[in-house]
């Protein structure tokens, strides 16, 4: 049953990825990482992907994150398709269903490192502290990599705490440092 629910939850993200990657030439930069246009007031950020599995009988929620190499970490979602794709802030966090798995990716719900203090170079690792409503604080390690360069690289062991397993944490290479951007104003999801 969990596998069926997980597959069903993954379909919208898969459909968005397919639409975005076939929509417009130039929509994917040379790094190979799909991006979304930041609306006015939303600073550009480096997307962070990860898998979060919840073995608990109750849901949880990712409510905040911090990273020493970024001024702040924003919880975001991508909306729209093709050239009309944009990102919004998720002020209520990201839900993690009971006995479920969520995949955070740039074309769906994800984290964004805003105001890099240092460059992200291919193969480097970075620390990320996640805070959940129920599970509390969980420290994870991410790897800087492009999807096409992941083969042959030893995976970082998952972080396991409070019934949650966080794995495959990654971000694409990015230059840095960036100037400190102003705090974003949350944008309500469009209907």
Describe, in plain words, how this protein is organized in 3D:
The chain is 12% helix and 39% strand. It is built from 1 helix and 11 strands. Strands 1, 2, 3, 4, 5, 6, 7, 8, 9, 10 and 11 form an 11-stranded mixed β-sheet that branches. A hairpin with a 6-residue loop joins strand 3 and strand 4 (86-89). It is globular, with a radius of gyration of 16 Å. Mean pLDDT is 78; it is low at 1-38.
Short descriptors:
11-stranded mixed beta sheet, disordered N terminus, mainly beta, Immunoglobulin-like, 1 helix, 191 residues, globular, 39% strand
Helix count equals: 1
Tell me the CATH topology: Immunoglobulin-like
DSSP helix fraction = 10-25%
- Cα distance spanning the termini: 29 Å
The low-pLDDT segments are: 1-38
Name given to the CATH architecture: Sandwich
Rg from Cα: 16 Å
Which geometry do the CA atoms define?
Answer: globular
Structural domains: how many? 1
* Number of DSSP strand runs: 11
Order of helices and strands: HEEEEEEEEEEE
Arithmetic mean pLDDT? 78
Structural class: mainly beta
CATH homologous superfamily name?
Answer: PCu(A)C copper chaperone
- How would a textbook summarize the main sheet? 11 strands, mixed
Please state roughly what percent of the residues sit in beta strands, choosing from under 5%, 5-15%, 15-25%, 25-35%, 35-45% or over 45%: 35-45%
């Amino acid at each position: 049953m969990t596998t069926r629910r997980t597959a069903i939850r993954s379909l919208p993200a898969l459909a968005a990825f397919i639409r975005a990657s076939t929509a417009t030439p130039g929509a994917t930069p040379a790094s190979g990482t799909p991006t979304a246009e930041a609306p006015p007031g939303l600073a550009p950020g480096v997307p962070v992907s990860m898998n979060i599995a919840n073995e608990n009988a109750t849901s949880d929620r990712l409510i905040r994150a911090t990273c020493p190499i970024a001024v702040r970490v924003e919880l975001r979602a991508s909306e729209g398709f093709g050239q009309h794709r944009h990102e919004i802030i998720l002020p209520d966090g990201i839900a993690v269903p009971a006995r479920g798995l969520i995949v955070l990716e740039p074309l769906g719900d994800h984290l964004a490192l805003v105001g890099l203090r240092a460059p992200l170079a291919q193969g480097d690792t970075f620390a990320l502290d996640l805070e959940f409503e129920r599970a509390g604080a969980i420290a994870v390690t991410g790897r800087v990599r492009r999807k096409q360069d992941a083969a042959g690289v030893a995976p970082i062991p998952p972080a396991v705490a409070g019934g949650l397993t966080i794995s495959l944490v990654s971000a694409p290479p990015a230059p840095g440092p960036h100037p400190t951007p102003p705090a974003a104003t949350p944008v309500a999801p469009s209907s």
